[in-house]
């Protein structure tokens, strides 16, 4: 699959590279695994004098030996003496950029935390002493967002405040997924929704589907559940190491959330555990779930639901992990039958998330989310608010819009007025046909650090 999108991020990287011609610059890039951080960095540095260095899990001395070999091979420069410490290797990079600009990508940088945590203090010292006299643009990439946040954004850490830019890379927006599908001859809105719902716009997943010719719902599902599919073990590959020995509890919680048990009381009663600490870590440390409140609710409101942030993980926990016995037996027919039986229920909730993204991307609203009252007696799938114009869109979202009744939506919208007095409310029933409405054309999001949906807004 060719390189798509990322124009805003490339512009930031190019600005940092130009500034590095006068003094060193440090860029930090984080984001979920499979989101395309390495691909983006390599796309950028290809037109510059560069090095790509990967921090693998091995002793510091062996790591340095491997990286020195890469430096010799790539830049064709002699390296004298033995380098056994990462700080000495970083000093070498600074020396190599004294007279000529050099872009250095250091991938999985957070692994140094377990190899030699003290190296960060040495890097701070070297950077502070030499930044003004070198022409080094160092791009630190990390997939463990909690660790990268700690390393660069916690005040007590040595590298706090040293990054000139921090890019939190997001999955492709729906507009880019649409462009990719069109390049592969797929035009239908139903297929756009299905592929987005399954991949969440993650470049790696889209690349796997594209290279396999699986860019429709049916072909994608066949690939996902096929023997030896990379998707079958993806949830475990992503999360078991992160969670450690408590992964069983975390997986059980995520399975419940993916299956629609989204309140803490439901989770506690089913699992028979106090899930509060686990939920807090899943949200603040692992960035896997988000707590969702009705639009207009106070930030500390106890009316809260939990949602898995990642589309594919919702699918994986709902269908693959939950039916692990069938997966282990290789009973693909059973698994496909379960997916088809429950697809409309799962897809209906994903369609709400889809339209939250579509509406947010128009740039017409400053707040987008869902709304429900106490006890969830009245629930509105999508509420989009423009606080400047005092206007509000309330929408019912259905795979089959004919099943929704405008009178019911208008009745619930009257309850909504209590939270938004004086706002002009427009009610709409929306389905995939609504995508052809010019009102939902996406605006351009210029800041690569901004997710147009924002935190705590997943349906």
Tell me briefly what this model is.
The chain has 459 residues and is an alpha/beta fold.
Q: Bin the helical content.
A: 40-55%
Tally of helical runs: 19
CATH topology heading of the largest domain: Rossmann fold
Coarse shape: globular
**Strand-residue proportion:** 5-15%
Number of strands: 11
Strand order of the largest sheet: 2-3-4-1-5
Tally of separate domains: 3
End-to-end separation in angstroms reads 31 Å
Mean pLDDT: 92
CATH level-4 homologous superfamily of the largest domain: P-loop containing nucleotide triphosphate hydrolases
Notes on the protein architecture:
The chain has 459 residues and is α/β, with parallel strands linked by helices. The chain folds into three domains: 162 residues, Rossmann fold, CATH 3.40.50; 97 residues, Arc Repressor Mutant, subunit A (Orthogonal Bundle), CATH 1.10.10; 107 residues, 3-Layer(aba) Sandwich (Trna Endonuclease, Chain: A, domain 1), CATH 3.40.1350. It is built from 19 helices and eleven strands. The strands form three sheets. It has a five-stranded parallel beta sheet with strand order 2-3-4-1-5. α4 packs parallel to α6, α9 crosses α18 and α13 packs across α16. It is globular and about 80 Å long. The two termini are 31 Å apart.
């Amino acid at each position: 699959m060719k390189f798509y999108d990322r124009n805003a991020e490339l512009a930031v990287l190019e600005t940092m590279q130009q500034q590095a011609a006068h003094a060193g610059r440090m860029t930090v890039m984080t984001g979920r695994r499979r989101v395309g951080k390495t691909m983006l960095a390599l796309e950028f540095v290809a037109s510059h004098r560069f090095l790509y260095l990967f921090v693998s899990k091995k002793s510091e001395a062996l790591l340095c030996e491997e990286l020195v070999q890469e430096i010799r091979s790539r830049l064709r420069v002699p390296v004298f003496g033995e380098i056994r410490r990462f700080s000495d290797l970083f000093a070498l990079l600074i020396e190599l950029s004294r007279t000529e600009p050099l872009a250095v990508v250091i991938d999985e940088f957070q692994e140094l935390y377990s190899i030699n945590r003290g190296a960060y203090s040495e890097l701070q010292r070297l950077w502070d002493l030499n930044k003004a006299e070198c022409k080094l643009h160092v791009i630190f990439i990390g997939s463990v967002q909690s660790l990268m946040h700690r390393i660069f954004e916690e005040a007590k850490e040595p590298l706090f405040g040293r990054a000139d830019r921090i890019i939190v890379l997001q999955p492709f927006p729906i507009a880019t997924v649409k462009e990719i599908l069109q390049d592969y001859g797929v035009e239908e809105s139903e297929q756009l929704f299905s592929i987005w719902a399954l991949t969440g716009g993650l470049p790696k997943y889209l690349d796997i589907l594209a290279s396999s010719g699986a860019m429709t719902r049916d072909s994608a599902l066949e690939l996902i559940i096929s023997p030896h599919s990379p998707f079958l073990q993806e949830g475990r590959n992503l999360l078991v190491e992160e969670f450690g020995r408590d992964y069983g509890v975390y997986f059980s919680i995520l399975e419940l959330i993916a299956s629609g048990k989204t309140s803490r009381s439901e989770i506690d009663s089913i699992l028979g555990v106090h899930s509060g600490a686990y939920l807090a870590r899943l949200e603040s440390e692992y960035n896997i779930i988000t707590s969702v409140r009705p639009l207009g609710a106070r930030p500390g409101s106890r009316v809260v639901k939990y949602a898995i942030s990642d589309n594919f993980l919702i699918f994986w926990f709902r269908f693959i992990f939950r039916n692990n016995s069938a997966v282990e037996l290789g009973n693909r027919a059973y698994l496909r039958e379960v997916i088809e039986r429950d697809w409309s229920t799962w897809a209906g909730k994903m369609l709400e998330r889809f339209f939250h993204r579509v509406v947010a991307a128009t740039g017409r609203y400053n707040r987008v989310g869902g709304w429900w009252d106490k006890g969830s007696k009245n629930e509105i799938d999508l509420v989009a608010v423009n606080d400047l114009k005092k206007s509000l869109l309330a929408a019912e979202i259905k795979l089959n819009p004919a099943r929704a009744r405008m009178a019911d939506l208008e009745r619930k919208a009257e309850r909504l007025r209590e939270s938004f007095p004086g706002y002009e409310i427009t009610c709409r029933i929306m389905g995939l046909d609504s995508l052809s409405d010019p009102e939902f054309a996406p605006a351009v999001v210029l800041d690569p650090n901004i997710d147009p949906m924002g935190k705590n807004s997943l349906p």
